[in-house]
Fold:
Amino acid sequence: MSQIPMKHTSQRQPRLAYECAIGEVFCRAPIYELIFSCVSPRTLVRTGRSCRAAYAASKDFSHRAYNINRHLSHFLSEPLDFRSLQARTGTLIAGSNALQFLDRTFYPEADMDIYVHPGHVREVLDYLVEREGYKFKPDSTQPADYREIVSDEWDGTVIRGESLDDDELLLYYQIKGVECVLSVEKLGPEGTLKIQLIACETSPFETIVNFHSTCVMNFIAFDAAYSLYPVATFEDRDTLSVWRARPLHDLTVVIKYGERGFAWHSTLPAGISPQTSPFHPFTDRTVGDQYTWRLPLDTAGVDLRLQMNSSSSPFQCDPVIYNGWSLEQVRDGVGTVYRTIQSTVFRYNYTTTNYKLNFRLWLFAAEQGLLSRILLRNNLLEKKSWPWFDAELAIFWEILRMIFCPSFDGTLLSTRLSSYRPAVLTLRYGVVEAKQPVFQAYCATFHSCNCSIPVDCLIPVSSSLCTCMSNNSTPSKNFPGELKFSL
Structure:
């Protein structure tokens, strides 16, 4: 067999990026910082994938450009302490502040908006006043002392019913899901600093996905920053108006974000199919899905959440990751659609568009809540030891992925469930034995109702539930046996 002659050259061909001329650009910080400061986040990521030198340069630039502690230091003297507070309470930073962070820009006139779960408002407000030196600035309807508005007592074992009148709140706060807005101010080096604390009725996430448009549907948790519509927001500079029960009459919002470089759309852009639209309409979304931009943050020095009590599994992730939503056509525009999950079995409230997940959680809450409440009523369980099952939400999410995703890799499941304890305080009864007919009726009800079906089933289920649901009728607010839906 003849051999192929080898071609000998006097110079070795470059093998690594730094041996190329382009590699020299990405080995000089003053040069690549000037380049990266002018590109979008997607271009930054794509450039980093081009060669080793570009990857190292993009990582170095991102580490400084997305320095969350430096970003928060404009409003907070101790950013790490505040982020530890975020980790304990699930508090989210959203609105224009999160947009500035992800967009690497600065709006001098903007304040900071933080969104707080029920039961944590007093703790967060006390921190801002006592630790950060802010002073409460009441509006014309609020007393001078915020302690008269926000109590430090919150009973999570109380059955969670309907929220306040949304129409009345929308007239006042302009945002769905807001219970009240509390403002604090202090004098900073460059003028007055203002933080608005938004006390949410159900959860910060529900409030955020009901913002006026998609460009502000970004938020910062203690461990990561998220953008729900990154391509439309940071690449196309487009924002889609989200329909609300009360139309947006304040055109200053449209003008403000127009001045910030965003093109306002009142409906989905024509000529773009839903499959290629950067707004991903008619798609079941979850926080952290393939369409979400998740930017991990440095958590060094951040104290994670301690175990809520001895009856609950450790829960150290932010509850926002267990939420879902979808953009659908509603009335005269596009609106955010989801079902709320509210139960005393979970410390926090959640949203989803997956009716199978919602039904499984509904059954779980009915079973678990029943036994917990029986133990509580018979003085066998103290309120301070009430078991929360937020950590077990990972099980429901991952099992559904295994069922509906044949290519699912079990590594993620074993990793996320490593701290899961065996199921305790479980009980089987009536409705569980009749899962299939109830499930079929539930699915029909889920799709036919234009309202939320929170999981708030805490007391024994009677046969009237099966009869009602098998007739495909909308459940009433109170069933025999005190079973309660919030419709």
In short: The two ends are 81 Å apart (CA to CA). The CA atoms of residues 240 and 265 lie 5 Å apart. Residues 164-173, 406-487 have pLDDT under 50 and may be disordered.
